[in-house]
Write a structure and sequence with these properties.
This is aralkylamine N-acetyltransferase. This protein is about 35% helix and about 25% strand. The protein is of the alpha+beta class and about 230 residues long. A hairpin with a 2-residue loop joins strand 2 and strand 3.
Length: about 230
Amino acid sequence: MEYKLIGMEHCDQVLEHLRRFFFADEPLNKAAGLCQNGSSCTALEDHCVEAIKDRMSLMAVDVKVDGCCKIAGVVLNGILRPGDTAKSRQKLDGSIDADFRKIFELLHGHSLKHNLFEHFDVVRMFDVRILSVDSGYRGQGIANELVKQSLAVAKDNGFRVMKADATGIFSQKIFRSHGFEVFSEEPYDKYTDKNGKVILPVEAPHIKMQQLYKRICGEDEDVKKQPH
C-alpha cells in the first residue's frame, strides 16, 4: 500500500471512492438520508473539493490491483482559520439541499459554540474532515495509517493543533488512539427542532459527535502575534 498526497488531478477518483464508501454510510448522512450508495451530492462534493484544494489530504493506493492503482482509503484534510466556520455557516442559508443543511448546521453550530482558536491561541488549525476506507480493505489498519501520516503532514507544515469533528464511534476511537482528546461533544438526541423532535435520528452505536484535538509541534508562524 502506498500513501500519497491528493492533488486536484485526483478529484474525480477520490469523489468516486467517497460516493461508494462514505457518503451513504457516514452516520449523519445516513440519518438525514442525504444520498444513496454510489450516488452524488453536489453540496457534499463541493465540501470535499474545498478540502482537496488545500493540498493536505492523503490517499492509500493499492498498486497491485489489475496492474493499475486503486484507492483503498482517503483522509481529507483542510486548513481552518478564524472566521471560516462562520462564513460556511452563512453559506448554508443559500443551500437548496435541506438534508445537507441539517448536518452542517449541527457541525458548524457546535464549532462556533466551542472555539478552539481562542482556547489554543492559534491563527490556523489542521482540520481532519473526512476519513474513509474501501469496504474491501477495512481491518487492515489503513484508517490508522492515514491519520498517522496526516499528523506527519501537519508537523511538516508547522501546525500546532489538529482538529477533527468525529461523528461516529469508530472514527472517534481511531482519533483517540492517536492521542486526540475530546474538547467538546454533543449528543444527537439533544439536536432537536422547536417542537423537541430529534433532527437527525442517528442509529446506535453512534450517539454523539465529538470535537477532538491534538497538540503538535509547529512553527512560530502558527501562533498569534503577542503585543510588545
